[in-house]
Write a sequence for this structure.
């Protein structure tokens, strides 16, 4: 019994060491990614500058009585947050995988990071077995995570599509109302 406890204790210590190493690697990758500016953040900065410049110009036009925008402004950010990717993903893992999906690339598996998806496909076509393909349990985890990302991306696309359809329907209804009002006004003016 004592030997079994010692074995379990050693296994637990090994797992903890592996987890610490992985956390260190993630911190290093995050530090590298912080140095590379995200294109979405650039777009957000541009949007903020445009909004701030338009708000300053609209302040001057408000004094003239011309109001182009009435009421609260809708949020322009249609991206996915970490909550949309689901649970059981490491911080930043969902966003990184979603970036590959957005580019239409294959999500790299463990041990393949640093290689392009073309290089990986080339190695696999030659006959190399990549490390992620060997272990059933790891493969199952990878597939589950990939499916989480794909489903989150599909939900986002579906939400955007339904929003566009709703806007089209609203514009069509508004156009019909405008036609009715214009026809009634023209009838009154004729009389």
């Amino acid at each position: 019994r004592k030997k079994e406890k010692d074995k379990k204790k050693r296994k637990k210590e090994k797992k903890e060491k592996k987890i610490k190493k992985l956390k260190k690697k993630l911190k290093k990758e995050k530090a590298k990614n912080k140095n590379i500016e995200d294109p979405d953040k650039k777009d957000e900065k541009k949007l903020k500058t445009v909004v701030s410049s338009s708000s300053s110009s609209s302040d001057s036009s408000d004094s003239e009585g011309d109001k182009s925008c009435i009421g609260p402004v809708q949020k322009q950010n249609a991206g996915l947050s970490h909550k949309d990717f689901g649970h059981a993903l490491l911080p930043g893992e969902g966003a990184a995988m979603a970036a590959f999906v957005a580019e239409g690339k294959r999500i790299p598996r463990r041990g393949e990071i640093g290689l392009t998806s073309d290089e990986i496909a080339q190695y696999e076509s030659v006959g190399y077995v990549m490390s992620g393909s060997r272990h059933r349990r790891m493969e199952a985890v990878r597939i589950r995570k990939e499916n989480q990302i794909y489903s989150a991306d599909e939900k986002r696309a579906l939400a955007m599509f339904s929003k566009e359809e709703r806007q089209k329907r609203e514009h069509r209804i508004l156009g019909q109302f405008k036609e009715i009002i214009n026809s009634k006004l023209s009838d009154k003016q004729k009389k």
